[in-house]
Amino acid sequence: MSLSPFLFTTTAEEGAVILAEDIGGKNVLITGTSMNGISFETALVLAKYASLVVTTGHNVESESHAFGNGVNFSTLGSRDSASYVPMDMYYQMRTANILNAIELSKRSKGEINVYSLTPGLIYTNLMRQSAVMATLQGLDILDSDGLLQGTERFVFRSIPQGAATTVVAAFDLRLNGR
Predict the structure, then answer these.
(1) What is the number of structural domains in the chain?
(2) Residues 6+ apart with CB under 8 A from 66
(3) End-to-end CA distance of the chain
(4) Is the pLDDT of residue 1 over 60?
(5) pLDDT tens digits, residue range 8-39?
(6) How far is 45 from 53, CA to CA, in rounded Å?
(7) Which of 47, 57, 87, 161 is the most buried if burial means most Cβ atoms within 10 Å?
């Protein structure tokens, strides 16, 4: 049995309409608000329903942590450029986000529901950065011009669809305690 009526294609706006009663009157903290990104889309949608929306920081997950080897604590804060491998740092950042969510959940003693979630595979500004682009070209996800290809192997979501993941996780009361 499915927990909620939300689909892979559901947008943040559609999710917010369904959850409007649960969103109404809440003060909301949105993290990671790069222009035209997933969290920015989430903030725009929730601003229609919540009492207050505050934006700051970043803590959205992806499944990329599985490609790395965890967090290399010995290189944290290192200024040695040889220890900086862009995709490895990305994987470490994603692992750190998961660890952060786990610790926040422990410290709140159940007062805050914390989820480490992935919004899905979304073509964002991050994919246009040279190191990321080169990696994705090597995986045949992007072509030589940096445009999406291989969409028969990878199903992409739009930014509004990715933002729906955050809206539903934050406000669908059926997720409490899960």
Answers:
(1) 1
(2) none
(3) 15
(4) no
(5) 999 999 999 999 999 998 888 776 656 678 88
(6) 10
(7) 161
Residue carrying the six token digits 């909301």: 28
Cα 160 to the chain's mean position, in Å?
12
Beta bridge mates, 158: none
Q: What is the pTM of this model?
A: 0.72
* DSSP class of 130: H
* Element at 55 (helix H, strand E): strand 52-56
94-115 pLDDT, tens per residue? 788 788 888 888 888 877 777 7
Tokens for 131? 């190191």
Element (H, E) at 157: strand 156-157
Task: Give CA 123 to chain center in angstroms.
Answer: 12
Q: Are 105 and 112 in contact (CB under 8 A)?
A: yes
**Secondary structure (3-state) at 10:** coil
Say if 95 falls within a structural domain. Answer: yes
Q: What are the pLDDT digits (tens) for 32-54?
A: 656 678 888 888 999 999 888 77
CA–CA dist 153, 46 (Å, integer): 32
* C-alpha count within 13 angstroms, C-beta hemisphere, residue 2: 5
**Boundaries of domain holding 66:** 62-111
